[in-house]
């Protein structure tokens, strides 16, 4: 058994079916063409990072992040935008491993803080417990407005 966390590379699009499963598990189902286009665009942006968790050559998790600057003080932080472990691999420590690897990457990139938002829905309660058990604090409320 091998397990590794590494940054997304364009050849990972060859495993688009595994990535589609993760997006489904995340609650954002999509189609192949849209996901390929989205990931290519994200991959080309210098401040975006997609960390993959790979077990025995299968992508079982992803952590999508963006390096950002504080407005309220000097410095940079990492914003966790998408985080998921394949539902068949949950409750086995893989989420904690991927989260720690995300924190290591953020630290290596000079970030002082890692942040995230998670929806206020009952199906997100387990995710909220997971984040709290890994040292995250609920410090703010997120707001959103559709502009279309």
Automatic annotation (TrEMBL):
Domain N-acetyltransferase: from-to ranges: 3-148
Molecular function GO labels: acyltransferase activity, transferring groups other than amino-acyl groups
Protein name stated in the entry: GNAT family N-acetyltransferase
Pfam families with a match to the protein in the record: Acetyltransf_1
